[in-house]
Amino acid sequence: MLRGSTLGIVACLLGAVTLTSCTPAPRPTSTPTSTAIFASEDEALAAATDVYQRYTAQFDKDSANGDGGAEAMVGLVTPAYLEKLEVPGLLEENNWHTQGVTTFDNVSLVEKSESDQLALVRLRLCRDVSGVRILDSGGADVTPATRLERFPVEVEFVSSAPREASLLIADSGSWTGDDFC
Fold it and tell me: Which domains does the chain have, with CATH numbers?
């Protein structure tokens, strides 16, 4: 009798070992990796705002020097936009310069899209030039009395390189929607 039950136990154990050894090992669970350049809209907004702040500071510096030094914008703007900045404007043509600081506020995200490993971010903001005076070569204030002091602007940014979260200004122009400033 003991033999029969010992044989039964051994058979059960062998069966359990056989079943266990035939069971495939559990597959490792894959952790999805993020393919997004920006983890969130807030991150894209912050990156674009930072670039625009640096661009505005450099623009004010160049305008104050009266040289329109677009070369200093390399690393902040795309090559195509840099070409637009290199075209002599009213300041250069009249040998004028500026004094003061441009500010901006009411920044909001209009669009954030990513495709082909590149990001596109568009912002709208209120540009404020009320603290900036235009001066002629003798230092006289020639700021137009009818100049808008605050106005809405739309700015487009693109990735500086594939899969890069650093942005460059690709275009800037008047906001065509309602004036939110």
Answer: 36-174 (3.10.450)
